[in-house]
Amino acid sequence: MVKYDYIVVGAGAAGCVAAARLSADPGRSVLLIEAGPADDDPRIARPVAWPQLLGGDLDWGYRTAPQAELHGRRLAWPRGRVVGGSGAINAMVHILGAASDFDAWARWGGDLWTADRMLPLFDEIFDETEAAGGPDEPARIPVAANPRPHPFADAFVTAAQKYGLPANLDFNRGTQEGVGLYRTTRTGDRPGAPARRANTAYTHLRPALGRANLTVLPDATVLNVVVERGRATGVLVRHGGESRTITADAEILLCAGTVSTPHLLMLSGVGPAAELAGVGVPVAVHLPGVGRNLHDHLQVSLAYDTTTGHPVDDRSNLGEAGGFITLLPGSPAPDVQLSFAPMKNLNNASHLGRGFTIGPAITRPRSRGRLTLNTADPAAHPRIDPAYLSDPNDLEILVEGVRIALDIAGTDPLGDLTCGPPPVAGTSRWRLEEYVRDNAETQFHPVGTCRLGRETDEEAVVDPRLRVRGVTGLRIADASVIPSMITGNVHAAVAAIGLRAAEFMREDHG
After folding, report:
1. What are the binding positions for FAD in this chain (predicted)?
2. Could you state, in order of their start, the residue ranges of all structural domains in the chain?
3. What residue numbers does the annotated binding site cover?
4. Which of 94, 150, 351, 445 is catalytic?
5. What is the assigned CATH class of domain 3-509?
6. To 10 degrees, what angle do helices 13-22 and 491-509 make?
7. In this predicted model, what pLDDT tens digit does every residue of 190-230 receive, in sequence order?
8. What is the pTM (predicted TM-score) of this model?
9. What are phi and psi of 358, to 5 degrees?
C-alpha cells in the first residue's frame, strides 16, 4: 500500500500553496491529488482567454438548483477542474478584501483569524514586482497594474468619477471606496516572455515540482476519505481506470473547494446523519454543518452596444476596471462592487471590444443556502442551492447598484460610446427588481460550506486550526471554511488560507 506523510486533495489556489509549503520539509513526503488534468492548455496562460475555459473540459460544469427568487432559473456555476483550480480559469482580479472582513472572522475563529493575522500572509504570497522564485525559495504571485487599459475601461473610470465616485488607484491599500483600474495576478511583459496568468500553480507549485518528496497526481478522482475509528487514514482514489487506497501517516488536507470538499466529506460519511442515511451513505461522524452556510457574490450584467469597436489586448483580463460603493449607514466596508469589461456580459466574451458591461454585485450577501447529496454516487453532482435573494436586503442592495450603474453608463464619455436601447426598459422600482431577478448571475465566489468555528458552535465543520470536528488527521483549507464573505474577489483570501493550514500542520507535526 502506498503511503505519504501528507495527502492534499485539490490543486487549486489553496492546495498548490499548501503542497509547496509542506514539501519544503525534505523529511516529509507529500502527495497532491487533482481531479483534472495538468495545466498545459495554452489558454490558461493567456489572460484574455479565460471565458473560453468556462463550460469546457476544465470546468466542473455545476449548475444550481432552481432559484425561487430568480424566477426559477438554474445558474451555471463554473469551477476549475484542472491543476490550478478555479485560479486557472478566473479573471485574475486581485482584491484582498477589507480589514473588517477578517476582523469579523474572529467571531468564529478567535485571534487566529483577525486582520492582524491574515493581512501579513498576503505579503508572503503576493508581490507587485517579483516573478516566481526557485525550487527552494518562497514563491510569490506577481501583481501587475494595467499600463495599457482598453479605451472603454478608461471611459468608465472617467464617467464614474464624473458621476461622483472618488478615484482609487489601488483597492488594496487603505480604503476600497471609489473607482479605478484593477490590478491582476499576471506577470509583466519581458522580452520573449509575454504577460501570462500567474496563479499558485504557476508560482508556488511549479517551482516545487523538482522536489523528490512531492508527487502530483492529476486526472485522479478521490472517491472518499477513509475514516477508521474516528481517524482519517487515507483516500480512495480512481486513477487510470483503477481504484486504490492511498494512506496518510500524518494528515489529509482537503482543498477541493466550496462544492467538492463538502461533497467529498458527505460521501465519506461525515455530515448531517439523517441526510446521509437518506441516500444510503453509512454515517461515520454526525456533523450537521457540512454543506450549510453556502453564500456567493451575486452580480447583474448591464450590457451595452457601442458605436465603435476597439481590439482587446491579449494581456487584458477583460475585467479591467471596477469600483466599490458604500450604501448602508454603518457598513464596515463597501456594499456594492462594480466590475467593468469591454464585452457584453461579464460571464462570457460576446461582442469582445464591441460593447461593454457594468456589473454591480453585492459584496457581503446575507442570503444563505445549502449543498446536499442527491445520491451516494461519487460521479453525480451534489444539489447546489445558494438561495439567492432569500434575504430581502440583498435585493435592495442590488437594485440600488443597478440604478447607479445605469447612471454611470449614461455619463460621458461612457455615454457617448453607447448605441441602441439601454438594457433596462425604464427605471421604476418594479422594472429594476425584475431585471435583477431575470439577469443576476454568480460572480464565481461561493464560500462557506465547511465553515470554521469554535468548539461550542454546533454548525462549525472545522475548528480555528482548520481541523475537521470529530475526525482526527483531517483538515480543510479552501473557500469552504470562510464563515462570512470577503468584500471583493476571494482568490487572495483562499491562497492565504492554504498557507495558514500548512503552517498549522507543520507546527503540529514538527
Report:
1. 82, 90-93, 222
2. 3-509
3. 82, 90-93, 222
4. 445
5. alpha beta
6. 30
7. 777 789 999 999 999 999 999 999 999 999 999 999 999 99
8. 0.97
9. -110, 130
